[in-house]
Amino acid sequence: IRLAGQQVEGIDLAEFIADLRAEVLSLRGGVPRLDGQPRTGFATTEQAATTLEAAGRIGITDADRSALEAAARFDTRSEETLFALSLRELSASDPMARVRAAQRLQALSARAALPAVAAALNAEQSAEVLCALLQVCGAAGEASILPLIQARLVHDEVEVRLAALEAAVKLHDPTCLSHALDDACARVRRRAAILASGDRDTSGVLQRAIHDTDPSVRRAAVLGFASLGGTCAEGGLLDALDDDDPTVRRAAAKGLSRSLGPDVFAIADLDPARRRREIRRLSTLPGAERSSSLAAVLGEPLPATIPAVAPPPPAPRPAAEPPAALQAEVLSRIYAALRGQSDDELVRGMPGQPALVLEAAAALVGKGRLVRRGQRYFVP
Question: Which residues, listed in sequence order, are joined to residue 371 by a DSSP beta bridge?
């Protein structure tokens, strides 16, 4: 504090502020900003983008478009003209015109158009146009635009979230798939499981998706594990083999059949207690022993191997074919059975010698009229 008339050394703060204000006013053309209107905030980023664009404070100017056109390199004059037209149509009033402009830019040169696309992405309201712009961003392969894409992963529209997820995966976002599994929409979670397929680095995403509440998401995770292969995939598929949904169990059995053989399909149709017992037993065996153990439990012959000493050949069967009437009766009984017939069930319900009944069933299998899965006969 300085008394009136008192002289002090150094800079006078009041004079400094007055000089600074004079410089600011001179830069503004001598007109102070005294509009009398209070400053107000924005409720959303979209409102801010719309307001600032109307005031001319953001967006792509004609000079910016000219710079982008000059930076892009094309082989023909028609491509240059189409590129310039597409840049202008990104700000067209018709949403379909903006969609077509984004699609043309993606086909021509997504990277060269990226600044204009990023500016349009910030101010865009239409979900369809946003999806087209996000596709351009994904095709550009420029990781610097990831923050704009990640902001659309929580958009209100499901289609926009799906497009943003695919674009983020193309740009190698390490967390987008994991975050997508927390989405409220099963379509987004299912797409995350599909996009995680075939990559061992994303096996953790598949492991989470295989326990999802929606069966379609679990099926997608099972298909992803099947595409991976290996011991890690077998563990996930064995877990899915005990799923409550039969379609998920069959998908898991199909994936396991590559390593365990077709006998694994029988486990998917077992009652829950026996199914869990067989899955626990298979999970404790080494991979090389699972197939032979599975065939032995289900009553099928062991896989073909080369033994140390070849067993003697079986005695030749008589060439006489079982009676046609008996074959027709066997076929009729299996047609009427919803879950097929086992050897014991077939023999108990048929007159005549048991061996002859089984020969009739075997003859029908040889003709392709019946198929045998595990211990049961079914109509193909």
Answer: 378
Does pLDDT of 113 surpass 50? Answer: yes
pTM for the whole structure: 0.59
Rounded Cα gap, residues 276 and 232, in angstroms: 19
Report angle CA 310, 314, 319 to the nearest 5 degrees.
145
Q: Check whether 189 has a pLDDT greater than 90.
A: yes
The chain-wide mean pLDDT, for the chain, equals 77
DSSP 235-278: HHHHHHTT-SSHHHHHHHHHHHHHHH-GGGHHHHTS-HHHHHHH
- Superfamily per CATH, domain 57-173: Leucine-rich Repeat Variant (1.25.10.10)
**184-299 carries CATH number 1.10.10.60:** no
- CATH number of this structure's domain 324-378: 1.10.10
79 CB-contact burial (10 Å; exposed 0-12 / middle 13-18 / buried 19+):
middle
Q: Phi first, then psi: what are they for 346, rounded to 5°?
A: -70, -40
Residue type, 371: V
Question: What are the structure tokens assigned to 67, written together?
Answer: 């710079």
* Average pLDDT of the residues in 18-29: 66
User: Domain ranges in the chain?
Assistant: 57-173, 184-299, 324-378
What is the side-by-side order of every strand in the sheet holding 371-373?
Answer: 341-342, 376-378, 371-373
**Residue 74, CA distances (Å) to 98, 109, 118 in order:** 22, 9, 21
Task: Give exposure, 223-235, as e/b (b: 16+ Cβ within 10 Å).
Answer: bbbbebeeeebbe
Rounded CA gap, 120 and 114, in Å?
A: 10
First to last CA, the chain: 102
Distance CA 184, CA 188 (A): 8
**pLDDT, tens digit, for every residue of 43-81?**
554 555 556 456 554 556 666 666 666 666 666 888 888
- DSSP class per residue in 352-372: S-HHHHHHHHHHHHHHTS-EE
Tokens coding 154: 């929580």
User: In the block, which residue shows the tokens 């626990």?
Assistant: 280
State the pLDDT at residue 84.
Answer: 84
Mean pLDDT of 325-349: 76
Write down the pLDDT at residue 187.
96
Asked, colleague to colleague, whether 57-173 and 184-299 share their fold, the answer is yes
